[in-house]
Design brief:
Radius of gyration: 17 Å
Number of strands: 7
Number of domains: 1
CATH superfamily: YqgF/RNase H-like domain
Structural class: alpha/beta
Distance between the termini: 18 Å
CATH architecture: 2-Layer Sandwich
Strand order of the largest sheet: 5-4-3-6-7
Number of helices: 5
Strand content: 25-35%
Oligomer: single chain
Order of helices and strands: EEEEEHEHEHHH
CATH class: Alpha Beta
Largest sheet: 5 strands, mixed
CATH topology: Nucleotidyltransferase, domain 5
Shape: globular
């Protein structure tokens, strides 16, 4: 449950920081026409982990996979990358993502937040090129690294 206080080590502490606030897991989505990148935070919102990307087989398939992830991973919030233009204006890609956000809001019972994703793919490509082939295979595509960067940006702003 978001906002619940958990003992750090299971024991009452003498320090004033004996408890931390659990935000719940947050799932980031980098929605692309061919692949969908995913990344998840830990329950405290401190660390981010890229998940294997999934091929985009349409909204119905995506919605089913997203529902399953929300249930199995205990997701409390979803962050969607919003592809703003480089000058910060909203283009057709943002309009598509806003329509998708509307569909997801009706279908899922978790809060959704749009986050500026400008340059996340460029940054992710730099990280991807530095990885070994074994590491690249683990994530399947660069899209999940982009989702991880989007989630890191979001967590840094909140």
């Amino acid at each position: 449950m978001p906002g619940r206080r958990l003992p750090v080590d299971g024991f009452k502490s003498l320090c004033s920081n004996d408890c931390v606030v659990s935000r719940g897991r947050i799932l980031a989505v980098d929605y692309g026409r061919r692949n969908i990148g995913l990344a998840c935070s830990d329950e405290l919102g401190l660390t981010v982990r890229p998940l294997p990307s999934i091929p985009n087989h349409g909204r119905k398939d995506f919605l089913g996979r997203l529902r399953a992830a929300v249930r199995s991973m205990g997701i409390r919030e979803i962050v969607l990358g919003m592809p703003l233009n480089m000058d910060g204006t909203r283009g057709q890609a943002v309009a598509r993502m806003e329509r998708l956000t509307g569909i997801l809001k009706l279908a899922l019972k978790v809060p959704l937040t749009g986050v500026d994703e400008r340059l996340s793919t460029v940054e992710a490509l730099e990280l991807w090129r530095a990885m070994s082939p074994k590491q690249q295979k683990k994530y399947r595509t660069v899209d999940s690294l982009a989702a991880a960067l989007i989630l890191e940006r979001y967590l840094g702003e909140t």
